[in-house]
Amino acid sequence: MRFYRYVTYKLYSWAKKRPNATPIANVVFTMSFVHLMHLFTLFVVLNKLLGWHFLVTIDKNMLYVILPVYFILYYFLFYNKKRWERYIKEFGNESKAERKKGKIYVLSYLIG
């Protein structure tokens, strides 16, 4: 869970540095997208391992409903102002070397 807190902290701190950014929305959107890709990957792997010939076909119009609902639910489940402030206190005093290493870890997690 420490790494997950750290990822949230890093994304939030990066978003706060950008002018005209909404850090909360950036973090929630990024993390919800990453988790959506995790679920999709898990589905594909299970499909291959179990030999399912099961493909989910979702109408494009249904996606216009499902995805906003998913992002809104994710926001309400994930965002907690007090908790995020604790993350800032917990990781805010990183050394330069720790910041550099943390940046590599977080980018690897997001890209991978």
Description:
The chain has 112 residues and is an all-alpha fold. 79% of the residues lie in helices and 0% in strands. The protein is built from five helices and no strands. It is globular.
Give keywords.
mainly alpha; 112 residues; single chain; globular
Note the run of SSEs as H and E: HHHHH
Oligomer: single chain
Task: Sum up the overall morphology in one term.
Answer: globular
* Low-pLDDT runs: none
Question: Strand percentage, roughly?
Answer: under 5%
Overall average pLDDT: 85
Main structural class:
mainly alpha
Number of helices: 5
The radius of gyration computed from the alpha-carbon positions, rounded to a whole number of angstroms, is 17 Å
How is this structure best summarized?
The protein is an all-alpha fold and 112 residues long. It contains five helices and no strands.
Secondary structure: elements and pairs:
Elements: H1 2-17, H2 23-49, H3 60-78, H4 81-91, H5 96-111
